[in-house]
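Ticket #466: bound-state structure for flavin-adenine dinucleotide.
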Amino acid sequence: MSRTAVVIGASMAGMLAAAALARSVDEVIVLERDELPDEPRPRKGLPQGRHAHILLPSGRDAIEELVPGGGVRKRLLAAGATERGLTSGLVTLGPQGWYRRSRHTESHPLLVASRDLIDWTVRDTVLTSTTRISVRRASAAGLLGTAERVTGVRIEDGRGGEDLRAEFVVDASGRGTRVEHWLSELGVTDIPKDVVDAGLVYASRLYRTPEGAEAFPPAQVTADPAGGRPGRSGLLLPIEGSRWLVSLGGTRGGEPTAAPDDFVRFALGLRHTIVGQLIGGAEPLSDVVLSRSTRNERRYFEKAERWPEGLIALGDAVATYNPVYGQGMSVAALGARALSRELDRTGIVAPGLARRVQRAAAKVVDAAWMMSVGQDQWFPGVRGKSPTLADRWLSAYTGRMARVATGSYRVSAAMCEVTTLQADALHLLRPSLLLSTALGPFLPPLSGPPLTPGERAVLTSLSGGH
Ligand SMILES: Cc1cc2nc3c(=O)[nH]c(=O)nc-3n(C[C@H](O)[C@H](O)[C@H](O)COP(=O)(O)OP(=O)(O)OC[C@H]3O[C@@H](n4cnc5c(N)ncnc54)[C@H](O)[C@@H]3O)c2cc1C
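RESOLUTION: The complex was predicted; output attached.
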């Protein structure tokens, strides 16, 4: 009997879920309502592509496992992406001070490229790796089946509606998913949900990399959640095409605007002026684009009392996070990897498969969610779940740890393990780390950004009047 799987959405979660399924079924149909470009270009269904994106090493490794031999990383690097060690290749002002740049250049490499390049490379690599996957331009409009088993998807394309039968369905339609509504039509209701919304607005703009500044590393000024003021942040990423993509963020009461004149001013008003200094005289290549799609929102599908066989949700359809932590794509990839591993273990017809995958994917979501919400809960005017006593203790502990990390590579590397989703948060509660955190940093705080003499000269030359 020929088996078909249907995936809704042809972005990160969808294409990787398709790659996972292609080894277990005869045909995977990926439904995508957007017109997909045949080269890295912005598209309507991926508005976040205008904003700075980094891919964590955990996400990169999950992609390589899902598309073995596909060489997504290699193709990205060949197209102008770069890899930067989180503890060595970034200039970061954390909430508690500047992080020192270590000599361990290989540790925690972040892949830096435009989201459009990542989107296209992943899709193209998956599609060329097998003939079992095809993309069909259509919108999913509902699920077929019952509360016990999903048996397909109701679709709409330019020609009208159609029922598409499938043994397995993946909802990877992103943050705007309608899956809760579709499930309620089948009688599956009461899916628990959480929202923590700091009212963050993201403003991004592209610049031409100034001459002589090609080797300048990514620079980041983070928000301080403990300051009692709106959190304001800035990130400058060198991306392919000799461009800088700069994203500024402000939580409720401290939002950036789309006015071009405000952009540099906002960057200069951050806890340090480095980002503003770098872009003050740089040539803008785009308008300022805003995003308000930044709230932490989670659907606990794994906790639903009833869950049908034959359906899972992955990626942003399950949870979204404050983008500052750069986790969404990696969580999507790790979720698809959970599907792949479960398929390898039990096969596609095993009873309870969907429930098991949804639970396994939720473990990765837990880690990202805890980190993002753990910070956002403290910004003024935040809406949603309030901090518990345990949250307060954890926040005090991680705040202290962040300070110690500015003067200890060991502690900063341990924190990076968790922030890059390579280790569980419990990793931070190991006795040796508790002790290091209690003892405090070995080295005094840095008074300014940790730059090489060459980088300092670039910063000075670009700063002009700022
Ligand atoms: C401002 C901002 C900055 C970010 N920065 C980072 C970062 O640095 N690092 C990181 O890892 N993540 C970041 N993210 C998050 C990241 O962009 C998402 O987590 C990621 O794109 C999720 O992938 P996805 O496949 O789940 O959903 P999406 O990428 O949203 O894709 C959903 C797809 O489904 C399609 N679709 C929707 N509905 C239907 C339908 N009914 N029928 C058919 N197709 C449909 C859409 O057209 C789209 O192609 C950021 C997000 C924002 C908003």
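RESOLUTION NOTES: Residues 8-14, 31-34, 45-46, 48, 51-54, 139-140, 172-175, 202, 291, 293-294, 315-317, 323, 326-330, 332 surround flavin-adenine dinucleotide (CB under 6 Å).
TICKET STATUS: resolved
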